[in-house]
Amino acid sequence: MRDARSPLLSYAHLSGLLARCGRAGDLRLGAALHAVVAKNPAHFHLFPARADLCHVLAAWNSLVAMYARCGRRLDAARVFDEMRVRDSVSWNSLLAAFSASVPDALALLRRMLRESPGVGACDTATLTTVLSACARADGGAGTAPLAAVHGLAVSCGLGAGVPVGNALMTAYFECGSPVSAKRVFGAMAERNVITWTAMVSGMARAERYRESLSLFRRMRRAVDANSATYSSSLLACAGSLAAREGQQIHGLVVKAGFETDLHVESGLMDVYSKCGLMEDALRVFRSCRDPDEVFLTVILGGFAQNGLEDKAFELFAEMVGIGIVIDANMVSAVLGAFGASAPFALGKQIHALVIKKCFLGNTYVCNGLINMYSKCGELEESIEVFDGMPRKNTVSWNSIIAAFARHGHGSEVFRIFESMKADGIKPTDVTFLSLLHGCSHVGSAKKGLEILNSMSSQYGIHPRVEHYACVVDMLGRSGLLDDAKAFIEDGPFKDNPLLWQALMGACSFHKNSEVGKYAAERLLILAPDCTAAYVLLSNIYSSEGRWDDRARIMKRMRELGLKKDTGKSWIELQKEVRSFVISTSHRNSADANDVLLQLSAVSSDQEDLAESNAL
């Protein structure tokens, strides 16, 4: 039996202690162990002739790895440079220390190949470490460094191996090159569950949803899927609005026993929410035993996206009431549910909660507050939140620009736009939508056309159909109906119903039956079931006193089974929003009378309070 004081056990103990220091981030103890090595040079001296060289080298490698894990890469490099003997583990440990920077990692790899030439100099760990650095760069350095490492892997005969292949695919996806990732996948002789999951996930994140689902089907014939695979396939279903496939995967999830996995449950709720199946999403939510913040945020966002604002508010109030810890993401999600008819009192309460929980430093929460106040008609409050933000991103600027545009302050929109550019923030397509809305309000058609043309010429942004619709609305507001008609027919979206609908609205306002009738005919060809076409055309005929033509249009609507969308008004009464419509039915008249009675009661209470204060 070996003596306890033998060098072999000393080296082994030292290596084990250094490994523990690295995992725990205990730099103080690690540095103390380094001092032990420094004070015993004879015992830890590295020279090729030593019989126990491999054990001494392991201790030095552990020292380099310890500094690397503690984030002290310069100390790791200093220890490495002191080593007269190095192996692949030594190089890999130092590579791990410099893997946060692609240029540093590649420079170290070149040094390794130069100083340690040979077949075994570059191994699987070396390549996966460098590839991880390329993946973390997120495409910032381009694909050229990644392609170079890929070539090195092929030349070393490791490119088709599972670990290196998986790392290559992940790096290519992170660098925005799914085609290259697919090529690597096709060249792999062997694939495991990580390989398949990386492909399913990567294709979904690259918005190649159908390919992702096709790979998932192929995978099920090759290996058993894990929870990460199911989460990735659900991401593809959510992105492609594939409700049927999502329900099928839900069945597979239950069959495989992953229905209680939070990531999988969040994915299921995301699919159902985006496909408009909120009852199914709520059922998944209610079945969760221990929801986390992400899980709660998904269901709140789902209600907001599907126009079920009241449900979002009720659920948020329920969460607060039962003591669930509210985080910034949940607050941001519920603020996204606010529209013009949302209860303003609740919005103010959420703002108070934001202040209480110190969320005003969160950019996303402040963006939500800006939009909430703007949609509730409180522009001054939006400005106050914006001015008080410690950090502003693109969405912050877009939100405040949209707030001014929504409230008809066209000149202020352009002033803020200039401030946005001066702050170094690049405008997005959403920014230009607000700018075009601002042009509509100030009646500056020339300025609006200049802005539309500048999108592609100055900012490299291709206008969408929504931008063209804004221009049509802008020209229509200015009474330039023939110009608006020509703008549609000469543009790339002449077959889009949205543009003709915008033109019809302008024709109805200016009582131009000639252009309006032409727009209506075009709209009905493109969208035969569009109620707006019939309604706007009937309004044009009404404004001109052409009652027979109006009656003919309304009769045609009834024959097609189309109904005009009922307009509604609302009022916030005693912290509750009451909506009502004008109708001749007794029931709706009774509802309106109830509202009026409550308003009278509130007015009476206020008068009584004023009298008592006067007394």
From TrEMBL:
The keyword Zinc does not apply. The keyword Phosphoprotein does not apply. It comes from the Eukaryota. Transmembrane segments: none annotated. Keywords: Repeat, Transit peptide. One of its GO terms (molecular function) is mRNA binding. PROSITE patterns: PPR. Pfam families: E_motif, PPR, PPR_2. PPR repeats lie at residues 56-90, 192-222, 292-326, 362-392, 393-427. Belongs to the PPR family. PCMP-H subfamily. This is Pentatricopeptide repeat-containing protein. It comes from Urochloa decumbens.
